[in-house]
Amino acid sequence: MNHQTIISHNALDEFCKHLSHQTWFAIDTEFVRQDTYYAELSLIQIFSEQGDLALIDPLALKDMAPLWTLLANPAVTKVFHSARQDIEILFQVGGLMPQNVFDTQIAGVFLGYGDMAGFARVIENELKVSLDKDQTRTNWHQRPLTDKQVQYALDDVRYLAPLYQAMQQQLTTEQKQALNWDFEQLLNVSLYQIDPDQAWLKLKGTQNFSPKQLGITKALAAWREQTAIQLNQPRKWIINDDVILSLAKRPVRALEGLYKVPDLNAGQVRQFGEAILQQLDWAFKHEKAWPNKPLKPEPAQPQEDTQVQLAMSYANQVALNTGVNLNNLTQRRDILCLLRKQPSMLDQGWRALLLGEPLKQLFNHQACLCVEAGQIKLLGI
User: Fold this and answer.
1) What confidence tens digit (pLDDT) does each residue in 180-191 have?
2) How many CB atoms sit inside 10 A of residue 11's CB?
3) Which residue, 167, 206, 236, 280, is the most exposed by fewest CB within 10 angstroms?
4) How many structural domains are present in the chain?
């Protein structure tokens, strides 16, 4: 398979100038993220509209400014599959947000692949090609790369390109317009900027916490994030989520008490114990910094609840038909907001087209539900 390996600035500059005159290219990245906080970029693969195939080696290049400029060029579409992680590392390394992206994984919801379709499965179904994925966990930092690694990396983009072309033929104008909203959301800088004070919001299991417990959670999560960044270590190497939740529920005052906290080992207590106690002490003393519980929406009235239940039945049918996880398609609160004509996740993007717009027709008495051939369907009135 003929391809170009780019290890010099001049070659990168020439290649990126060439791509800037094309309308799209497929791109993928390989990275290592086992024992560090930040993912370490190992390789970038590109297949262009005109068939240019290249491996860009960031380990050999000190300056990749031409690539960052190309990625930020809104005139050229960058095609990814499952773009979120790729965009995150490209943004963190390059400092510029890519513009004009197309994510074939998201687009797959309109072709019946669900919302988390793996690349190999989609390629096998669309292009009738079975990809070898045995290099998924390989060490991409090693040099030279093995022939298998090179083949694996190139396959990820040389088949992504025809997949994109096939999708462009299959998707309707309406579907493409809906997807543009979702692709724009991927480029929201706040998704990739690190704010330690907001780290506590990512922890699950705090729904029933008191303001004091939330204050402790926030303080510990912010300290853990800052420490992980400073040491460039995974968060769980500092302390894991369960430790934060345990200390929020049952805070301790002395170092000895930390040795009794489940999932907190002796080495962590020795290294971080004093810092943990300082965060607990700070949280106790700064009540004004405790987060307020988010206001819950007004509970559904009985008649509203009946309509939401009916809508959830239809949503479940849509999820089954499309392969989308129901919890990712919608929640009861999203449907309730839609019913009340309040902002809802069902107002925009692929969710609006698959579910939001049909439910609006239902709620506005422009359609009704029926059962046909064992499936719940929406019929216009």
Assistant:
1) 999 999 999 999
2) 16
3) 236
4) 3
